[in-house]
């Protein structure tokens, strides 16, 4: 049984002491491919380096909405564009909107502008997109409808309603399911997981964040993806093998993983 962790951050300093062990534990759990996402410019360069070093590791490059401060000054758009041409870069991301942490309306507008700019990079390079969206469902969907023509992607760590999920699926985009699906207070997630067409979900850990039960509260890592898959298997009444098979296929198709 093979799995793909379609979203994590192994460049986080929480992995600086034991990254090789973490990588091998993932491999031994069947998590044979990992997509590591950048949040800043430096981080994006690092995920590309990691992808060169570890087999089965791929990179997503982009500037996270909480990290856009010096986007223009740093010439970030051009740097991300050039970096994204490297081998092993499978996606633009994570990019998007975060209104949970950003309450200032002008800065939210700046987030939208930079989100659109990075969607354009994805289009020019024909790369899929990994979107971070928190408490910004309406604006994020509006931007995707108006500026993501011809693009495919995923709303990672999906936190919206079933209604929003259905809109996302209608656009041909996928949703990413993470550790919170295993939490007792997972709210609408089980209902969404149950309703999801097989082709429309991806598994992800978002490590080091959001460790699934029974690791909740600890550092998350790609090998814990299996706990998320087990919960999904329980919710959907499908075998773990089936879940592994179609979510791996979904990831390989969306991100052109080889
Ligand atoms: Ni993330």
Summary, kept brief:
With 258 residues, the chain is of the alpha/beta class.
Structure description:
An eight-stranded parallel β-sheet has the order 1-2-3-4-5-6-7-8. Helix content is 41%, strand content 17%. With 258 residues, it is α/β, with parallel strands linked by helices. It has a single domain (3-255), classed as Metal-dependent hydrolases (TIM Barrel, Alpha-Beta Barrel), CATH 3.20.20.140. The site of nickel (II) ion has 5 residues, from loops.
Molecular shape: globular
CATH class: Alpha Beta
Integer tally of domains: 1
Low-confidence regions: none
Give the tally of β-strands. Answer: 8
How much of the polypeptide forms β-strand, as a percent range? 15-25%
Q: Can you say what the CATH homologous superfamily is?
A: Metal-dependent hydrolases
CATH topology: TIM Barrel
* Assembly state: single chain
Output mean pLDDT.
96
Distance between the termini: 17 Å
Summarize the amount of helix as a percent range. Answer: 40-55%
Compressed to H and E, one letter per element, the order equals EHEHEHEHEHEHEHEHH
- Summed up, the helix count is 9
Name the structural class. Answer: alpha/beta
